[in-house]
Design goal:
With 466 residues, the chain is of the alpha/beta class. It is globular, with a radius of gyration of 24 Å. 31% of the residues lie in helices and 22% in strands. It folds into 3 domains: 234 residues, Ribonuclease Z/Hydroxyacylglutathione hydrolase-like (Metallo-beta-lactamase, Chain A), CATH 3.60.15; 108 residues, Rhodanese-like domain (Oxidized Rhodanese, domain 1); 101 residues, Rhodanese-like domain (Oxidized Rhodanese, domain 1, 3-Layer(aba) Sandwich). It contains 17 helices and 24 strands.
């Protein structure tokens, strides 16, 4: 028996490879499927099943491509409806992989079709559960993603409580819990950095499982949920209805353009220029009106949160050899319209004598000196609301990056703004968007709030009124 968790940090997503006696199964695969096919081929195994725990909202699954290339059956739990060939399992239906068995446990609540898969060993002993977004380590799935006109968030939370107590918490304490996500995912609000645990330990430490009543569970699980990123519903639809093959997306995107061609293509197509370099490298010199979302951070989720049109043509500015990675990570969240990249990167652009823009950056000491001389400086804190509440500069205004498309119309184009986040990744994204939208005077505070905390500037842990 082999069970391998394949964890992708950028998406905080876990797929699973299961193998026994020459047969294999994949649970919740990512968009690019070659790694799964290669793994099975090297083991001399045939991929028999692709188990989907639900219609994922935060990434595009590789289920359709993987089924076509491996011949495996796609399995969903009860109530799922797809536009492609799939097997809709009955509650309690059992599937066999070599000497192992996998039992379908319908566990609605996160979504109506959410399903947990119980794996038992060759002796029939329960060994682990693949819980998808029903049960996380330290949390449970958010209950607010159901489509409008169906159940309310509170009703779904109640359904989730029923699923957990009827189907999961009755299982042996020593079985392992393998969820679809870990800390950093927007699918929950209190996920642990650990990516698996025993069910017994989760009963002791998971706040949602310790709720003393259904009503308390509903109140706790629904409290403080931020609106889901705009791309969630679009990804869920792609997973339900199908999508362009990943190979075609790659082929279309891996087109190198010399600087002149790049400029002409950008003008003719209306493509968004996406610069994926490190924030400080971007600040030192970038193509005017390009947006910086660095590959070194949570690249794909931020693309999904901020670029509202999945069909927006994209032209990439990347570090040498990073185009394929960028295209892959974009496709994971449904952005399939990359049409090429700048050959030779920003150096080629500069060598061609093309226009360059910059973002000014100041150290916290420089900012402190400037602020003391001019206390009226406009400071925008682009961290999440919870981070702001936990501690912020008294003079700062909370303007979360997540909602920049909603608050940029409040910004004075001729004003000067100092921006910071926790460390510098998000503030550079915000700075690039403001610059692209006509705000020339944006200044990044290097080191973010982590560095600002070391200064003597006044700070508070409650939201100030402005």
């Amino acid at each position: 028996m082999k069970i391998e968790q394949i964890y992708t940090g950028c998406l905080a997503e876990a797929a699973y490879y299961i193998e026994s006696n020459g047969e294999a199964a994949i649970i919740d695969p990512l968009r690019e499927v070659q790694p799964y096919l290669k793994k099975a081929q090297q083991a001399g195994a045939r991929i028999k099943y692709i188990f989907e725990t639900h219609f994922h909202a935060d990434f595009v699954s590789g289920h359709v491509d993987l089924a076509q290339q491996s011949g495996a059956d796609i399995i969903y739990g009860p109530t799922a409806v797809t536009n492609f060939a799939s097997h809709i399992a009955e509650d309690g239906e059992v599937f066999h992989i070599g000497e192992l068995s996998i039992k379908t446990l319908h566990t609605p609540g996160h979504t109506p079709e959410s399903t947990t898969y119980l794996l038992s060993d060759k002796e029939g002993r329960p060994y682990c559960i693949f819980t998808g977004d029903t049960l996380f380590i330290g949390d449970v799935g958010r209950p607010d993603l159901v489509q409008k006109g169906a159940q309310t968030m509170d009703e779904m939370a109640g359904t989730l409580y029923d699923s957990l107590h009827a189907k999961i918490l009755t299982l042996p304490d020593d079985i392992l819990v393998y969820p679809a996500h870990g800390a950093g995912s927007s699918c929950g609000k209190n996920m642990s950095k650990e990516t698996f645990d025993t069910l017994g330990n989760q009963k002791q430490v998971n706040y949602a499982l310790k709720a003393e009543s259904r009503e308390e569970f509903i109140a706790q699980v629904t409290d403080g949920i931020l609106p889901p990123p705009q791309y969630f519903a679009k990804n869920a639809a792609m997973n339900k209805f199908g999508y362009t093959s990943f190979a075609n997306v790659q082929k279309k995107g891996m087109i190198p353009f010399a600087p002149e061609e790049f400029e002409v293509t950008a003008n003719h197509t209306g493509a968004l220029l996406l610069d994926t370099r490190d924030p400080q490298a971007f600040a030192a010199g970038f193509i005017p009106r390009s947006i910086n979302i660095g590959l070194g951070g949570q690249f794909a989720p931020w693309v999904g949160a901020l670029i509202t049109n999945l069909k927006q043509p994209l032209l990439l500015i990347v570090e040498e050899g990073k185009a394929e990675e960028a295209i892959t990570r974009l496709a994971r969240v449904g952005y399939d319209y990359t049409i090429g990249y700048l050959e030779g990167g920003i150096k080629a652009w500069k060598d061609a004598g093309k226009e360059i823009d910059t973002v000014d950056s100041v150290s916290v000491n420089e900012f402190e000196t400037e602020f003391n001389a001019n206390p009226g400086l406009a400071v925008l804190d682009v961290r999440k609301p919870g981070e702001f509440e936990a501690g912020h500069l008294e003079s700062a205004v909370t303007r979360p990056l997540d909602y920049i498309n909603e608050w940029t119309n409040e910004v004075n184009l001729s004003g000067t703004y100092y921006l910071h986040c926790a460390g510098g990744y998000r503030s550079m994204i915000a700075a690039s968007i403001l610059k692209a939208r006509g705000v020339d005077n944006v200044i990044d505070i290097a080191g973010g709030y982590a560095a600002l905390k070391t200064t003597d500037l006044k700070k508070t842990d409650t939201i100030a009124s402005h």
